[in-house]
Amino acid sequence: MEIIKILVVDDEARMRKLVKDFLSVKGYKVVEAADGEEAISLFMEQKDIKLILLDVMMPKMDGFELSRYVRRDGKSQPILIITAKSEIEDMQTGFKSGADDYMSKPINLKELVLRVHALLRRAKIANEKRLLIGGSELDYDTLSVRTEGERISLAPKEFRLLFLLLSYAGRIFTRFEIMSEIWGYETDSDERVVDTHIKKLRAKFENSKDFEIITVRGLGYKAVKKERA
């Protein structure tokens, strides 16, 4: 089983240790950097880093500048900014610099792990682009599913939801997890929108010989692969 390596960049040693200890318990390998320049060196040396957690206010090179550097270099690893700067203007700057997500200090470590999981899943999906489930092929570029010689086009959120469930077939996703990954943490939508999209997907694929979407009462949803006869 692959051990995922995460780069934690923060000039506060106590903060780095807190995050490293918690993520290590969850099975991740963590490397640390105290500023942006050290982070660049580590990032260039260790090609297997899958995700970057970084602070904004650091000496030598701040987090926004580091994020821009990573993106200018053409790297696509998810970037999660963790900072005390929580004004909307700061968040906008963070996203414009290339960050994928943003958390304000003091952080909730359990929420941090959820966001890390979500970012890694999105990165995996974005990199794969296509997914084969039995005789069905999901194409991320065209937002469509080809099955039994028929091509079914989906709305963007419908497709992303189906791709998420089938990428991790058998895994139960709570409505909160689905909302966070498909609609984003800051959405104003109600969790019932998940039920609506699940209902639409079931209607479109009710005769699928390859998969079905199951309701796990009290928890959420999962996709299950079918065995073709």
In percent, how much strand structure appears in the residues?
15-25%
Q: How helix-rich are the residues, as a percent range?
A: 40-55%
Structural class, judged by helices and strands? alpha/beta
Number of helices: 8
Task: Specify the overall morphology.
Answer: elongated
Mean pLDDT: 88
Which parts are unreliable, with pLDDT below 50 for 5 consecutive residues or more?
none
**Helix-strand topology string:** EHEHEHEHEHEEEEHEHHEE
Straight-line N-to-C gap: 31 Å
Quick one: how many beta strands? 12
Report the C-alpha radius of gyration, rounded: 19 Å
Strand order of the largest sheet: 2-1-3-4-5
What characterizes the major β-sheet?
A: 5 strands, parallel
